[in-house]
Amino acid sequence: MGWLRIILCVVLVLTMVSLAACSSSTNGLEQVRVAEVTRSIFYAPLYVAVTKGFFEEQGLEVEITTAWGGDKTMTTLISDGADIALVGSETSIYVYQQGTDDPIINFAQLTQTDGTFLVAREEHDSFSWDQLNDSVFLGQRVGGMPQMVGEYVLKQHGIDPQADLELIQNIDFSNIPNAFASGTGEYVQLFEPQATLFEKEGIGHIVASFGAESGQIPYTVFMSKQSYINDNADTIQRFTNAIYKAQQYVYATPTEEIAEAILPFFEDTDLDIVISVINRYAEQESYAPTPILQEESWLLLQEIIDQAGELEQIVEYDTLVETRFAEQAINQ
Fold first, then answer.
1. pTM higher than 0.90, yes or no?
2. What are the tens digits of pLDDT across the range 261-302?
3. Beta strands in 153-294 (DSSP E)
4. In 10 A of CB 53, how many CB atoms?
5. Measured between alpha carbons, how far is 29 from 105 in angstroms, rounded to an integer?
6. Bridge-partner residues for 65, per DSSP?
7. Which residue positions does the secretion signal occupy (predicted)?
8. 87/208 Cα distance (integer angstroms)
9. 173 band by pLDDT with thresholds 50, 70 and 90
10. How many CB atoms within 10 Å of residue 114?
């Protein structure tokens, strides 16, 4: 968990900097800064909430920045560079394990499965997981949710990631696709739309879904510092209201309309690719239907973290999960 040392260093550097948690824009809307871990169709409901005006209906103007990695996203949140982070719940556990007077609270779940796919360099007429034995596997960052879920799934199929694979984990998150495209690895774990783009370009072939294999977990969740939630409970509520409306929209709307709604966030991606990716995620129910983070999912998350050797102690559900905003959004 070397990334935590990076966070602590950055926070120390920024202790002299005071940033406003939120402010009013010229159009009278309250500004909320969101740091997302990556830009992905996996997060479609967030972008729907922006383009369909659901945040604006709640009196909010949401500014989204992409941090490109869980460590960078959490650094941004802790150092007050963002009010809300969209990132894996494991990051809140890591911060809690290090000791903090201002824990990171998960208040609204966005996705409920892993969002990565196994991409093979060579096409397979039929795929079985044991074909990965003795292969070169380009994985994700140690301690990150993609890598931990990947290892969990491999173990479920009788593969020891450390002993049965040549596992590469020293490549920065944002550079993993380029590394695979340049010839590194026989298999790679990728998010969409990169996996589908590689398949379309003949660089690789999607052979399995880690999300379909791993079960339901709080994979990406909106979270904020406890202090921000205490001081801005109404803002958090209105933000959650908009997210829930977007979640309902995604489940009730034809894929083509969803794709058109989020296309402004993916200007370099063809509409047919966006449609294909949304369908892929919808089929495996990756989009959470409500913002409520369930306790059983929280426990499975920690089982996965524990198997990866990154969990120091079980963190109780009520310690880092707050469901009152999601419940009110649903029941209002």
1. no
2. 999 999 999 999 999 999 999 999 999 999 999 999 999 999
3. 166-168, 187-191, 205-209, 220-225
4. 12
5. 25
6. 35
7. 1-20
8. 23
9. confident
10. 31
Contacts of 222 (CB under 8 A, 6+ apart): 34, 84, 85, 86, 106, 107, 108, 109, 110, 239, 240, 243, 291
Neighbouring-strand partners of residue 104: 225
E strand or H helix that includes residue 260: helix 255-262
Q: Cα–Cα–Cα angle for 199, 276, 138, nearest 5°?
A: 40
pLDDT of 65 over the 60 cut: yes
The answer to whether residue 154 scores a pLDDT higher than 90 is: yes
Distance, CA of 12 to CA of 27 (rounded, Å)? 35
CA-based nearest residue to 146, from 179, 110, 190, 178: 190
DSSP codes of every residue in 269-293: S-HHHHHHHHHHHHHTT-B-SSS--
Rounded Cα distance, 110 and 145, in Å: 15
Q: Domains in the chain and their CATH numbers?
A: 2-9+21-113+217-331 (3.40.190.10), 116-214 (3.40.190.10)
Average pLDDT, the chain: 92
Name the maximum alpha-carbon separation found in the chain: 59
Measured CA to CA, the distance from residue 183 to residue 120 in angstroms comes to 12
Q: What percent of the chain has pLDDT over 90?
A: 85
pLDDT for residue 155: 96
Structure confidence at residue 2 as a pLDDT band (50, 70, 90): low
Which residue reads 């650094």 in tokens?
75
Token code pair at residue 236: 């958090």
How far apart (Å, rounded) are the C-alpha atoms in residues 312 and 305? 9
Which is higher by pLDDT, 8 or 107? 107
